[in-house]
Amino acid sequence: MKIGNIKIDIPVFLAPMAGYTDYPFRVLCKRSGAGIVYSEFVSADGIIRENVRTLEMIHFTDEERPIGIQIFGNDPEVMSKATDYINKNFKPDIIDINYGCPVPKVTKRGGGSAALKDLCLMDDITCAVIEAANNTPVTIKMRAGWDRDSIIIPEAGIRLEEFGVKAITLHPRTTKQKYTGKANWELIKTLKQSINIPVIGNGDVTNIADIQKMFEYTGCDGVMIARAAQGNPWIFDQAKSLFDKNHKPKITSLISIASMCKEHFELLVNDKGNSTGMNLMRKHFSNYLKGFPKASIFRQKLVTADSYKNMVLELKAFENYALSSGL
Ligand SMILES: Cc1cc2nc3c(=O)[nH]c(=O)nc-3n(C[C@H](O)[C@H](O)[C@H](O)COP(=O)(O)O)c2cc1C
């Protein structure tokens, strides 16, 4: 699969997720085999104001390439300036525009999925970003429409392709649905049949069988995974076997969970310092420690550890348990 000139070996991608897809989590998913990883959505306003926290979200390493930086905003000029800034200062492989965020704080100000009900705004933002991006491919991540009476697939996809967008990821829920109901994969199929650029299907893929089903049912070119990757970077390693029959996926033993937790924790602490790293790691522990005997006991201890030293000790105790259990 190709997006613009970027060749992607394994077309299974890590989705942008606010609060999750920072450098440590992205790099672990990449090492597991994710074809592309994305930053969480980054405010175009914050970028052009050079807000330190916003710029930190864009920071990435070469190991993560190909990487997409996702931006959101409501003003074509600001989006254009932000694109230019990212291109010059960070040189990502892809710039992705967020037309999917349903959070009222964002949509009330015309950002994220608000563009789904204002196609003129969507046109203006898209064209401004493509012009500013120069040769960097611009991709879109979108929902299917604002509500069930205003589904804009495939029409919006056809317009976006004409403007020069290089791929579209569709999460086929409406803004109003948020995360309720089911993602309507039929719309991914319709979009794929309507445009010539790659279509990346997203929504309700929970395991490797779902990845295969989504490819087969929709004919999509790539599959993007969000929630099922939380606490489970191995899903990308398992996905490799769909494309390489000789690939033997790693078995997710308790020992591999313990070493993934340790590696994740170390990456976070090295990147953000002990205190922030420790706080950010709590939600990842909740995701990693599930579905095995005593999981809730270790989870509780790790999530509530009240100092860096205690978190290290609890992690060591979990590691010892994993080694002795042989699971
Ligand atoms: C915690 C969380 C944060 C998210 N943040 C973003 C984001 O920053 N940008 C975006 O386009 N989508 C975001 N999403 C939506 C996901 O990328 C994805 O479209 C959605 O979760 C459906 O995919 P899934 O069924 O694989 O989870 C987020 C989802 C979750 C659960």
Bound molecules: flavin mononucleotide
What portion of the residues fall into strands of 2 or more residues? Answer: 5-15%
pLDDT averaged residue by residue: 97
Helical residues, percent: 40-55%
Largest sheet: 9 strands, parallel
- Give the radius of gyration: 20 Å
Would you identify the regions where 5 or more consecutive residues have pLDDT less than 50?
Answer: none
**What is the class of the largest domain in the CATH system?**
Alpha Beta
DSSP E strands, number = 11
- Name the structural class: alpha/beta
H/E topology pattern: EEEHEEHHEHEHHEHEHEHEHHHHH
Which CATH architecture of the largest domain is right?
Alpha-Beta Barrel
Question: What is the CATH superfamily classification of the largest domain?
Answer: Aldolase class I
What gross morphology would you assign? globular
Rounded to the nearest angstrom, the distance between the terminal CA atoms is 37 Å
CATH structural fold name of the largest domain: TIM Barrel
Per DSSP, the total helix count is 14
Structure commentary:
The chain is of the alpha/beta class and 327 residues long. The chain has 2 domains: 2-240, TIM Barrel; 254-325, Four Helix Bundle (Hemerythrin (Met), subunit A) (Up-down Bundle), CATH 1.20.120. The protein is 47% helix and 14% strand. The chain is built from 14 helices and 11 strands. Strands 3, 4, 5, 6, 7, 8, 9, 10 and 11 form a 9-stranded parallel beta sheet that branches. Strands 1-2 form a two-stranded antiparallel sheet. β10 (199-202), α9 and β11 (222-225) form a beta-alpha-beta unit. The radius of gyration is 20 Å and the shape is globular. The mean pLDDT is 97. It binds flavin mononucleotide (FMN). Flavin mononucleotide binds at residues 15-20, 40-41, 70, 98, 100-101, 141, 171, 202-205, 225-228.
